[in-house]
Amino acid sequence: MESSLTISIQDYLKHIYELTEGGENASTNALSERLNVKPASVTNMVQKLAAAQPALVEYQKHQGVTLTKEGRKAALEVIRHHRLLEAWLVQTLGYSWDEVHEEAERLEHVISEDFERRMAAAMGHPLRDPHGELIPTADLVMPLEDSTPLSALRPKQKAKIQCVKNADAELLRHLEGLGLLPGAQIVIVDYSSFDHNLTVKSGTKVSVLGLNITGKIFVDYLG
Amino acid sequence: MESSLTISIQDYLKHIYELTEGGENASTNALSERLNVKPASVTNMVQKLAAAQPALVEYQKHQGVTLTKEGRKAALEVIRHHRLLEAWLVQTLGYSWDEVHEEAERLEHVISEDFERRMAAAMGHPLRDPHGELIPTADLVMPLEDSTPLSALRPKQKAKIQCVKNADAELLRHLEGLGLLPGAQIVIVDYSSFDHNLTVKSGTKVSVLGLNITGKIFVDYLG
DNA sequence: AATACAATTTAGATTAGACTAAATTTATCG
DNA sequence: CGATAAATTTAGTCTAATCTAAATTGTATT
How far is Cα B71 from Cα B79, in angstroms, rounded to an integer? Predict the structure, then answer.
């Protein structure tokens, strides 16, 4: 659904960051998909980027891209903007968690550092955005995630939803309808495979099959 | 202080609108100054714009540009965004009136109509922005200005400041220091020429000479 | 009415970021 | 190990928005 004809450097950095979180390199193809740009264009841009900003980005032919420490900070800046914006739009303008993403996606590139500071201060420097995702700190460090994937829980166990990652708007609305927002307490009733069926809360069986699932749920284990 | 390398159509429309408020045409040169782009580039863009969007813009060689009714609406949309944003940033994030302009300038192009509606509703559909400028209505009509230029007042007369137009940040801070914000009650003590000296509030003589004045003050006449 | 100055336009060059098609490299698998 | 498929890169094209320099048009003044 992206539509801007030209992709900002910030977007390249953000997506490279997300693709390299696990330590791998970001491949041309993977970037191409996320940015809605043909692979050849990505190669081109990434080569230029690496030439122009060697302090941010490392590129080797056929090996994909990585970020330097500084590049990672630049990416975290954008992610911080995004998550603070999501939190703030929800708090002050009554956006629901499935609506904010798109808006934040456009605003994240144009707000000033001053704006960022004011939002953070106004909300008391929140640690997570409305989806429960961790917000990089003001000095651009990404806090360590301390939650467990929902799929690690077994029947009868209790947990609190902490974070719903990378979910599309449809899944978010579905989850919201079931009260499965970050903060909700759940009990695993019956668990077969997270990829297909998700059973939470005594008696509530949530079929996620059929939805085009892209999201992952993380929880705080309670016993 | 502008820095975006490429000017959006929205910016062209907005500045054409502002230049044509008095009924005149917007000249290539005038647009060129406001947009920080060379006159030749403006000619070029305006010709393309008029060819691509004849429903918005009318252009004739050596005669400058005007907006059609529809073009004016498109411009008012941007201006509405800008002024609502200014009001909202001041209200919710404690910006001062001299700081908001720049921020709103960048945000106005990327917020959604939904965002616009939410801001307006959250503030109770305000009529004026923090500088006192009228906010175009939701159906994109610019309300009629009912205030008087400060220069029309004579000594001993009382008035309430309603609007400070087109002032740069320096003048705004100066005015703020004197309590001359929109809403302030003033008494004309001594008036020679608004262009050079401005004397308001019993006993306070404000020399505006020496400031690089670009602003105009409008008031409600009180007697 | 002629000239001179300012504003505007034309023409042509430059840059950036995308695209397509073809070539190359890497990876996989019998 | 070699063949094929997939991923990546190269090469060349296109478009959009700017620029500079030169040509033109409009305007004001005498």
Answer: 12
